[in-house]
Amino acid sequence: MNSILNTSIAKSSSYQQYRNLIAKLAQDGQTSGTNINPDYIHYTKLNESRMHRLDKTLEVIEDVKLFLENLSKEYIWLVLAESWCGDAAQILPVINKMAEVSDKIDLRIVLRDANEDLMNLFLTDGTKSIPKLIIIDIVSGAVVGDFGPRPKPAKQLILDYKATHGVVDEAAKIELQKWYLADKGVAIQQEIVALLK
Q1: FRET partner for 193 with CA separation of 20 to 30 A, picked from 59, 71, 104, 176?
Q2: CB of 78 closer than 8 Å to CB of 5
Q3: What distance in Å separates the CA atoms of residue 133 and residue 130, rounded to the nearest whole number?
Q4: Nearest-CA neighbor of 158 among 171, 172, 174, 148?
């Protein structure tokens, strides 16, 4: 396995540890990462309540559940995230629910800004976009695939909005959150499973 991956996994957190961190940051009026500003603090608080709701309401769809229950290989699912990231708040609870289905998936989370070497291996169009899920075969140490920062329909929604309005503003973010709410994690589940087939 790549030494950067090894180092990141060694200092990674479980989903529960990550959730505890988000809750504490939100409670203390703080945010993760190197860019500490009032907007990011606000987003951290918002994301804590989003994740809390999603942890309670999300469900893995039946065909994805069946596939995950019958995995033949063991995987580490390593996710780059930050507390202020709206997409991470929508996607990480889905990834966690999927990982809970199978004892062959070990979900681990690292913060992007504290793991720049890892982030630089998984850029999206040259940018440090998160969340980024890296799927690693435990036996071979090989990266099977990666997912993120958004499922394809959400990515298209933002591209279309930017083409029409020239910017990604607060209205675009609201449209994106509405899309996530309506989709209920289905596109995320299907795209991740496709990487394992």
Answers
A1: 176
A2: yes
A3: 9
A4: 172
Q: Give, in order, the Cα–Cα distances in Å from 100 to each of 125, 130, 158.
A: 31, 22, 30
Q: Given the structure tokens 């070990």, which residue do they identify?
A: 106
**Domains of the chain and CATH, by start:** 3-149+187-196 (3.40.30.10)
pLDDT in tens, the chain (197 residues): 689 999 999 999 999 999 999 999 999 999 999 988 999 999 999 999 999 999 999 999 999 999 999 999 999 999 999 999 999 999 999 999 999 999 999 999 999 999 999 999 999 999 999 999 999 999 999 999 999 999 999 999 999 999 999 999 989 999 999 999 999 999 999 999 999 98
pTM of the predicted protein model: 0.95
Q: Using CB atoms within 10 Å of the CB of residue 25, give its burial: 0 to 12 exposed, 13 to 18 middle, 19+ buried.
A: buried
User: What is the C-alpha separation between 184 and 90, in angstroms, rounded?
Assistant: 9
